[in-house]
Amino acid sequence: MTRDCTTVTPGSKSTFPYDIWLNIAHFIPPLVLEDLFSVNRVLFHLAMQQRYGQISFAYLSKKMLRLLVRLKDPAVAIRIRILHIHPHFVNEDFNFDPPPAPPTSSLRKPSPQIKNLDDLISTMGEVLSSLPNLTEYRIAWVGLQSASAPFLCTPFGSSPLTKLTPEITLENLQTLLKSQPSFFGILRELYLLLRTDHALDVAGYDMILSRTLAPMINGLSLQMLSLRLWEPINMSPFFSALYPQPNLHTLVLGIPLPAPHLGNPDSVGAFLNVHIQALRSLSLHVTHLSSPIPIVDESLCQ
């Protein structure tokens, strides 16, 4: 069943089925489509989705501040499906004039202005707690262990996330996952890209892998798991601590060419043997990375 959509042009009485407008939109360049708010209801919704369906916060700028203020409007926040965050902006100098508040009716209080870094962090937390349709979350968090970025964990408890893609150090992963791990329950796809800040010893990294990352995954019902490394890391404690994932049908492993690769092959092999019957897709990629990082035990290279 199709829906009619009447254009809002004054004096126009022509109507087109909803599906026809969707087909027309396929031929409109994305940058043009996002400006067609006033044509009709269908293109209004498509333009809003094009403009706000996928957003990114990476660099501190006036554009970023304006976007944050705009997203405090619930009618805009509901459009967001995919969110990228690179939190290095919390270390940048805040030397901008506050962005103007968006127009509001006389019945609504104007939004507080973002005047400094504290306002930015507070507003970021408020915005990220009000994204009811956010399903995909991508985080790039390397270094910045001492930086204040509490908002990074906010979507875990407020949005129906089904796909998580963290490019992250093990040190920061521990901070990210220890917040409220019970909120990860509806994740179906996990794409891990791991590295380290070289701040811990072997035992410290083993602890994160076996007692933080593995338990988090054990509480999920994953359908897709991708694990890639920026550097050789002994992942044996991680694989040894994993429970079977009965719904896992796609597995991607990036295996570093330098030793210790992924660690003890027995633990990786045991994990594969448990899931091999249920897997519909298995990808093993050899990656040529740098030489083993300092925290790796020499015994693992034997």
Give a structural overview.
The chain has 302 residues and is α/β, with parallel strands linked by helices. The protein folds into three domains: 1-51, no CATH class; 53-93 and 115-161, no CATH class; 167-196 and 208-302. 32% of the residues lie in helices and 18% in strands. The protein has helices at residues 18-25, 30-33, 41-52, 62-71, 74-77, 117-128, 154-158, 170-177, 202-218, 236-241, 265-275, and strands at 4-6, 15-17, 54-57, 82-85, 136-141, 163-169, 189-195, 224-229, 250-256, 281-287. The strands form two sheets. The chain has an eight-stranded parallel sheet. Strand 6 (163-169), helix 8 (170-177) and strand 7 (189-195) form a beta-alpha-beta unit. Helix 8 crosses helix 9. The relative contact order is 0.08. This is F-box domain-containing protein.
List the keywords:
302 residues; alpha/beta; eight-stranded parallel beta sheet; two-stranded antiparallel sheet; 11 helices; 18% strand; disordered C terminus
Distance between the termini: 65 Å
Strand order across the biggest sheet? 3-4-5-6-7-8-9-10
How many E strands? 10
Number of helices: 11
Overall number of structural domains: 3
Overall mean confidence score, pLDDT: 79
Shape: globular
Percent range for β-strand residues:
15-25%
Q: In percent, how helical is the residue content?
A: 25-40%
Whole-angstrom Rg: 23 Å
For the largest beta-sheet, the strand count, sense and barrel status come to: 8 strands, parallel
Order of helices and strands: EEHHHEHHEHEHEHEHEHEHE
Low-confidence stretches: 1-14, 290-302
Question: Strand pairing plus helix content: what structural class?
Answer: alpha/beta
